[in-house]
Amino acid sequence: MPANAFFRRGTTKVWFAPTVAGASPTAAEVNAGTRLVNIADMSGFSFANNPITTPDLDTVFDSQIPGVDAAEDSVITFYEPKTGTDALFTTLAKGVSGFIVIFYRGIAGASPAAADKCELWPVVSSGPRRMYGMDASAARWSVTLSPSAPPNVNATLT
């Protein structure tokens, strides 16, 4: 096992920040947002380049050049509380724009602070949707978050 390996569950922390003024968020901007808790699953949050094939009549090899950068839709699934209200349902309502801030290696203190490493994902919410099923699992709801601008996957809180 690699000496630097770690278990993401229990380490990675996620926030929704309604506003971020620069390329990297400030601790104040993140702390003014909402910590996303009771996360059952996350998918997406992937940024990639779609290369363009450049065939050449002089060779049987198809070379490629960098093409369009793209980020796929991302989904966060939450456990649904049996009683009371879930404030995240309102926070992530349909059409809400903001930023998902992923502290992929956790945070140094009790709350995000300067020098914490993160990914910054500008997103628009498609709105919460409850999930129904007959399997033996806890009640859940999910939200799809569409990228609205390129993410900063190497951000540092200031």
Describe what this molecule looks like in 3D:
This protein has a single domain (13-156), classed as Elongation Factor Tu (Ef-tu), domain 3 (Beta Barrel), CATH 2.40.30. The two termini are 34 Å apart. The strands form two sheets. Strands 1, 2, 3, 6, 7, 8, 9 and 10 form an eight-stranded antiparallel β-sheet that branches. Strands 4-5 form a two-stranded antiparallel sheet. β8 (117-131) and β9 form a beta hairpin. The chain has helices spanning 27-31, 87-91, and strands at 13-17, 34-35, 39-43, 47-54, 63-71, 74-79, 97-103, 117-131, 140-147, 152-156. The protein has two helices and ten strands; from the N terminus they run βαβββββαββββ. The protein has 158 residues and is mainly β.
How is the secondary structure organized here?
Layout: E1 13-17, H1 27-31, E2 34-35, E3 39-43, E4 47-54, E5 63-71, E6 74-79, H2 87-91, E7 97-103, E8 117-131, E9 140-147, E10 152-156
Antiparallel strand pairs: 1-2, 1-7, 3-6, 4-5, 6-9, 7-8, 8-9, 8-10
- What string gives the helices and strands in order? EHEEEEEHEEEE
Low-confidence regions:
none
> Any guess at the CATH architecture?
Beta Barrel
**Average pLDDT metric:** 93
Rg from alpha-carbon coordinates: 19 Å
- Largest sheet, strands/sense/barrel: 8 strands, antiparallel
Q: In one word, what is the shape?
A: globular
Structurally, the number of domains stands at 1
Helix content: under 10%
Query: Approximately how much beta-strand content do the residues carry?
Result: 35-45%
The CATH class: Mainly Beta
Classify the fold: give the CATH topology.
Answer: Elongation Factor Tu (Ef-tu), domain 3
- Supply the helix-strand structural class: mainly beta
